[in-house]
Design a protein that fits this description.
2 domains, Rossmann fold, alpha/beta, 15 helices, 7-stranded mixed sheet
C-alpha cells in the first residue's frame, strides 16, 4: 500500500497536516516543513512510549504528489493530496517567499481548502510569513496575529482588518496559532506539542531538539524602521521631525500644533499611518538608537541613556525592557562581548 492509501485508510484517526505550498517558496519554507514534521513525529513516538493516549497521523499535503520548492532546489514528496483529505484536526502553514500576492494567487485552491477546514472545526497554525496565506482567507479579520517583524509593514498594508501583534512571538486565539519570524517557528511547534500532547512531551522535545521552552516574545530581535509606506505626507514629516530630535524630549502637543491639527486628531492619524502613537514612535526611535550603541560601542548605560534623551535611569530601563524584553545591561551583554570585557 502506498503512502496515500495508508493515510486514507486511517481517516478515522486524528490528523496533523503540514501544507506544502506551490510556487513562491524559499529555503525557509523547506525548513518549516522539515522541522515541524520531524518534531511532531518525534513527539508522537515519545508520547506513545510513555503511555499517552493522543496519537496523530502526521502528514505533508499539497496539490501534487511532488512539490518543487526554493527555485527547484528541493522537492517535497507529499503524503497525500489536499483534494483527497476531507478532514484534519490541525493545519500547519509554513513560511512563504516575499512575493506574497503572487504566492496567494498560485495557491488559491490551498487557501480555499484551509478556509473550509477551519469552518468544519480544524485548528490552524502559521509559521512566520505563512500568516499571509491564512490572512488571505479572511479568517484572521478582527483577530490577533503575529508574523516576522520585517514583514509587518507589508502585512498591515495588505490586511488592515487583522490585529497584527509585532512584538508577540506566539498568538493563540479561537483555534488559530501564529508566530514571529524565521526559525522561531520551532517555538510555536513546541507550543503545539504541549497543546496536542502534554507538557512532559514538550519538555522532552525541547531537550532533544535544544529549543528554548516558553519563549513568548520576538522583541529582542526587532529592528525598528518605522512604517513609511502609508501615503500620509504630514505624518511622514512628523516622523522625520521625531527622528531628527533624538536627544530631545518632544512635546506632542507642540508637534501637532506645527501642523495646525488638534492633538487627538493628530494621535489618531499618526496611529493609523504608523501603527504607533506619536509617543510610542518617539520611544521606539530612541530605544533603537540605544540598541545600536550597546551593540557597537563601549559606552556606559548612563552615556547611552543621555544620548537618546533620557535623564531618569529607572524610566529608561522600563521603556527599554518594554520594547526589547530585556534590560539594557542584558542586551549589551548578549550582543556586545567586547563591551563586557
Amino acid at each position: 500500500m502506498d503512502a496515500t492509501g495508508y493515510y486514507l485508510c486511517k481517516k478515522n484517526m486524528k490528523h496533523i497536516t503540514i501544507i506544502a505550498p506551490e510556487g513562491q517558496t524559499s529555503l525557509g519554507t523547506v525548513a518549516c516543513i522539515a522541522g515541524a514534521y520531524e518534531i511532531l513525529t518525534r513527539a508522537n513516538e515519545y508520547h506513545k512510549e510513555i503511555g499517552g493516549n493522543n496519537s496523530y497521523i502526521i502528514q505533508i499535503a499539497g496539490t501534487t504528489p511532488i512539490t518543487e520548492m526554493a527555485g527547484n532546489l528541493f522537492s517535497v514528496r507529499t503524503h497525500v493530496q489536499l483534494s483527497e483529505l476531507k478532514k484534519t484536526n490541525l493545519v500547519i502553514i509554513p513560511s512563504l517567499a516575499r512575493n506574497f500576492e503572487k504566492a496567494e494567487k498560485e495557491n488559491e485552491y490551498v487557501v480555499d481548502w484551509i478556509e473550509k477546514q477551519y469552518k468544519v472545526g480544524a485548528e490552524i497554525a502559521t509559521l512566520c510569513s505563512g500568516a499571509f496565506m491564512l490572512a488571505a482567507t479572511g479568517i484572521l479579520d478582527g483577530k490577533n496575529c503575529s508574523t516576522h517583524w520585517n514583514y509587518a509593514e507589508k502585512f498591515r498594508t495588505l490586511f488592515p482588518k487583522v490585529n497584527l501583534q509585532t512584538d508577540e512571538l506566539i498568538t493563540d486565539e479561537n483555534g488559530i496559532y501564529t508566530n514571529g519570524g524565521a526559525y522561531s517557528f520551532l517555538n510555536l511547534v513546541l507550543y503545539l506539542v504541549e497543546k496536542y500532547y502534554d507538557r512532559q512531551t514538550a519538555i522532552y522535545c525541547s531537550k532533544i531538539f535544544q529549543i528554548e521552552m516558553d519563549r513568548q516574545s520576538q522583541s529582542p530581535f526587532i529592528i525598528f524602521k518605522g512604517q513609511k509606506q502609508h501615503g500620509d505626507e504630514m505624518i511622514r514629516q512628523a516622523q522625520a521631525f521625531i527622528e531628527s530630535k533624538l536627544m530631545e524630549k518632544i512635546s506632542i502637543v507642540d508637534l501637532s500644533s506645527q501642523f495646525s491639527i488638534g492633538r487627538r486628531n493628530f494621535d489618531r492619524r499618526f496611529l493609523k499611518a504608523t501603527g504607533n502613537t506619536p509617543i510610542e514612535y518617539a520611544q521606539r526611535v530612541k530605544i533603537e538608537s540605544a540598541k545600536k550603541s550597546f551593540e557597537t560601542t563601549r559606552k556606559s548605560i548612563n552615556e547611552v541613556m543621555y544620548e537618546v534623551g533620557y535623564s531618569d535611569l529607572k524610566a529608561f530601563r522600563e521603556i527599554f525592557r518594554r520594547f526589547t524584553g530585556v534590560s539594557p545591561l542584558a542586551y549589551r551583554k548578549k550582543y556586545n562581548k567586547d563591551a563586557m570585557v
